């Protein structure tokens, strides 16, 4: 286990014309599962490479516990001395090596006896429940077993820190679920500090205790995933961490008006965007009597799709083109007129 401390880390490329990281400060605690979420080009891989020691920060300092490992363009502790295990996007195994040889691979350049290598490989293989397939080649392994071998290879050096760079993006949906569960289970068992970077909030929700949201090289919010989901600092963060309806509203004395919808909230600023998540919207033909929900007005159903056992419904105010998406287990038809309710305490207001 290790505690990672980043102090004001910046990274520029092309003589300063590209700023990949801009003054990033964060502490990842001992044994914590920390996620970095960000869109493409935000600087996620750059941060990961700096933590791994494959790159150095242009300015700022990086500590592993109390040990300074990189500072202002200087590599102080090289990657091989950082006690890191990495899993990349592909989970790729060497096809011409057995599971045993794949797992042992990171140990081959270390001065280690054959017996010690065998002991270590067998130990990690037992933890991952693949000890019975160690003499199989990758093509003789199931997809799940291949993931376990790749993870075993990352863990065989007994790392203090496990780095995962978009590890699930190339897996199909079923494999992705099992890989997420596997990573979380193994991390809990070993207590290793874990850093995962991803553009997919589902990875973060499945794995991370805390998340840092990276936008254009800046860490704009750090918190528990559900905290960031409920109280995002900006529209952009809100949409990175989950689906959200964004509505440009006109501020009036009686609330915020969006077409024929009226949100009964009071706001100070006059240029705002309302954010409301699909699950915080309810469409009904009848009046809903529930204190948590407020009626914003009548709407017309525009599009109905079917997705994962639910109907995905797009609704607009009667007299304008704004759209709100929600999910319902009741079918509806395009053209239906419905009452639109929202959960009052879940309305998010962003100044623009
Ligand atoms: N070696 C490099 N030389 C020049 N620019 C670079 C280099 N590496 C990264 N960049 C730039 O730095 C920025 C951040 O890149 P990075 O790969 O860290 O983003 P990312 O969040 O990992 O993106 P993705 O999700 O697409 O992999 C991008 O604008 C990228 O083009």
TrEMBL record:
Q: What InterPro entries does the annotation carry?
A: AAA+_ATPase, ABC-Glucose_import_ATPase, ABC_transporter-like_ATP-bd, ABC_transporter-like_CS, ABC_transpr_FbpC, ABC_transpr_MalK/UgpC-like, GlcV_C, Mo/tungstate-bd_C_term_dom
Gene Ontology cellular-component terms for this entry are: ATP-binding cassette (ABC) transporter complex, substrate-binding subunit-containing
Q: Note whether Transport occurs among the keywords.
A: yes
Q: What keywords does the record list, in alphabetical order?
A: ATP-binding, Cell membrane, Membrane, Nucleotide-binding, Transport
ABC transporter domain sequence ranges? 4-241
Q: Which Pfam families match?
A: ABC_tran, GlcV_C_terminal
SUPFAM superfamilies the UniProt entry points to: MOP-like, P-loop containing nucleoside triphosphate hydrolases
Gene3D superfamilies assigned: 2.40.50.100, Nucleic acid-binding proteins, P-loop containing nucleotide triphosphate hydrolases
Could you tell me which SMART domains the record lists for this protein?
AAA
Recorded GO MF terms:
ABC-type ferric iron transporter activity; ATP binding; ATP hydrolysis activity
Superkingdom of the source species? Archaea
Q: Which NCBIfam families match?
A: ABC_arch_GlcV
Q: Protein name, please?
A: Glucose ABC transporter ATP-binding protein GlcV
């Amino acid at each position: 286990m290790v505690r990672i401390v980043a102090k004001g880390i910046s990274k520029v490329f092309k003589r300063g014309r590209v700023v990949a990281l801009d003054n990033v400060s964060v502490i990842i605690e001992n044994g914590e599962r920390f996620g970095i979420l960000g869109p493409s080009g935000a600087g996620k891989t750059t941060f990961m490479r700096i933590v791994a020691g494959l790159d150095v920060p242009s300015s700022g300092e990086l500590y592993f516990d109390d040990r300074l490992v990189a500072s202002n363009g200087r590599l102080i502790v090289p990657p091989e001395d950082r006690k890191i295990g990495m899993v990349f996007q592909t989970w790729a195994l060497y096809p011409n090596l057995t599971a045993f040889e794949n797992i042992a691979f990171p140990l081959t350049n270390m001065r280690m006896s054959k017996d010690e290598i065998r002991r270590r490989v067998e130990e990690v293989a037992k933890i991952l429940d693949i000890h019975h397939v160690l003499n199989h080649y990758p093509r003789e392994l199931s997809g799940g077993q291949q993931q376990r071998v790749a993870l075993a290879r990352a863990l065989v050096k007994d790392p203090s820190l496990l780095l995962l760079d978009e590890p699930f993006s190339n897996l199909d949906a079923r494999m992705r679920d099992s890989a997420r569960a596997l990573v979380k289970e193994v991390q809990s068992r070993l207590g290793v500090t874990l850093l995962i970077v991803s553009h997919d909030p589902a990875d973060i929700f499945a794995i991370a205790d805390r998340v840092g949201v990276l936008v254009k090289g800046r860490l704009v919010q750090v918190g528990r995933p559900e905290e960031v989901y409920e109280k995002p600092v900006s529209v952009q963060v809100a949409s990175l961490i989950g689906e959200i309806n964004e509505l440009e509203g006109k501020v009036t004395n009686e609330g915020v008006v969006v077409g024929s919808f009226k949100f009964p909230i009071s706001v100070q600023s006059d240029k705002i965007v309302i954010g409301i998540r699909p699950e915080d919207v309810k469409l009904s033909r009848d009046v809903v009597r529930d204190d948590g929900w407020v009626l914003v007005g009548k709407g017309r159903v525009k599009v109905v799709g079917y997705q994962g056992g639910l109907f995905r419904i797009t609704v607009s105010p009667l007299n304008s083109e704004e759209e709100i998406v929600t999910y319902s287990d009741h079918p509806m038809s395009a053209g239906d007129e419905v009452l639109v309710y929202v959960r009052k305490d879940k309305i998010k207001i962003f100044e623009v």
